[in-house]
Amino acid sequence: MKPNCSVIDSIAVGIYEVSNPELPYDTASCQYNCIYLVAQNGIDYLWNTGDTNDSLLVCIKEEEKYWVDITNTHGCKSSDTTKVIPIPSTEAYIYDLIPVFCSYEDSVKLHGYPFGGKFVGNGVSHWDEDYYFDPQKVDPGAYDLIYAYTNEFECTYNDTVNLWVFEQPYVDLGDDTTVCNNDMLTLSAPEGFDSYCGLMAV
């Protein structure tokens, strides 16, 4: 008959807490905006895109999910997932504008769609709810005219048109002169112009 022998042993088990990456909740932002997704509480990071930084730059074109795996200082691993949702864009554009001016021309009213945006650029003025471009207020040259519209979601969209302002031409036909009745006099205008328009004196 064998004796009933027993033995006892024990070990201490330490349990480390798993860290939460704390990605933001699903994020809606303006379409084509770029935002940073930031993970926390880790020493090593691996995003589903292959990036290994704690933050990931995302340019929002369509709805997508992103996730990250992190490892904390104790070697414990955890993950988190978030979704980015684009707010539909609003098309904005400038219309009813011929972008070529002579420097002496009067100001023209500017039109943008949708109504309610703002025009920005050299030579632009604002009166009441209307915007105008005045070629007399700028030097001859090329200028960017920008129309910016902000929709109800606080998303801003732009359209840009290049404006050209040309210097007023200078013409010198010489000194005043007199001729006899029924005589002919030839007047010569300088070269270099695209077209000429003259008046006939009788």
Notes on the protein architecture:
The protein is rod-shaped, with a radius of gyration of 36 Å. The chain is mostly beta strands and 202 residues long. Among the domains are: 27-87, no CATH class; 93-166, Immunoglobulins (Immunoglobulin-like, Sandwich), CATH 2.60.40.10. The protein contains no helices and 15 strands.
* CATH domain class name of the domain at 93-166: Mainly Beta
Output mean pLDDT: 88
Rounded radius of gyration (Å): 36 Å
Strand order of the largest sheet: 1-6-5-3
- Low-confidence stretches are none
Proportion of β residues? 35-45%
How far do the termini sit from each other? Answer: 151 Å
**Largest sheet: number of strands, sense, barrel closure:** 4 strands, mixed
CATH homologous superfamily identity of the domain at 93-166: Immunoglobulins
The portion of residues assigned to helices is under 10%
CATH architecture of the domain at 93-166: Sandwich
Helix tally? Answer: 0
Structural class: mainly beta
How many DSSP-defined strands?
15
Shape: rod-shaped
